[in-house]
Amino acid sequence: IYRYKDLGARKILSQYTGLDYQFCEKVGIAHGVDFGHQIQAQDVNLPLPIHWAFNDLTVQRANGVKTCFNMAHPWLLLKHFPNPKKGRALVVGPPPGPINDSSVYTALKSAGFSKFDILVKKRGNALESEQFWKKKGVDVVSAGAADTEFYQRLASILWNYETIVGSYLSSALVFAGSIGLKVRILPVTLQWYEPLDAAEVFTYGGLVQKFGKLVAQRSDREIASFSLQLLGDNLRKPRSEARAALIHSNNIAKDKPIHIRSDLSFHRARLIAGLLSARNGFLQKEFRDLNPLTRYIRKSNHVLKITLDEWDIAVNGKNNDNFQTVPERYVEGENDPGM
Known about the structure:
single chain; alpha/beta; three-stranded parallel sheet; 15 helices; 11 strands
């Protein structure tokens, strides 16, 4: 129930506080950066009983939903050693796939980028994407799988570049901005799959538009300041204070060690099903009748194919021109969310 891809957040927290991992295992955190772009605080409904609220907006939105541990993002708990090479640029690649890769390459050429490296995500068609870029003469780098060393590997990559170019609103852009790198926009339409409720969940409100407009204006100093704000620079705590706060959160969580959405019914049945199956969806998903429950049990639900330009959304707001969706039946390995 406590197992999820935290990209190394809880390991960093354990190292920072000096506490055994058992004090960190009940802590859930948004994957990447919570821009306030979803209706609720991002990933607040993970079944873990404590939410790591790393910026002021997340504190406000998650408080009352579950116990919160208010602390700067794990990225800021790492020691950073930027050593940017003059003129060196890294493009944050799209979710791997032939359509996305081709679209990004065309957009880069149109925007006048001639020399750059590409950061490829290790998911879906990553190997094909690496081959695509290498054939174009582009050096490929990757932070690897989403394991406990992910943030550290990503940091060691970003330190080497002067400019980071985003093909979409990747958290890597905020991380880069927070350590003083230049962040630039690459307007391009991409496609990927999300869970079926994504269109309802993603509002693209909150701080997304402010960040997008700062990047569009190339306001480097303001981008750095705003990135630190998004990562909760004001919520940094000394190690001793962070240790005490984490122990306190664990003491509160003892009374309710598994979080189930408060708006869901049949909590006891969901808890039993979740524990017996080790499938967190029983604790998070809404089943209005037997049909979606049956689909979930059989793993034959639908996913949403999304076509979007996240930079246009960030600057101009979500509309029918920059955000379209089509539901598709889920086929494992072909259209998993994130592919």
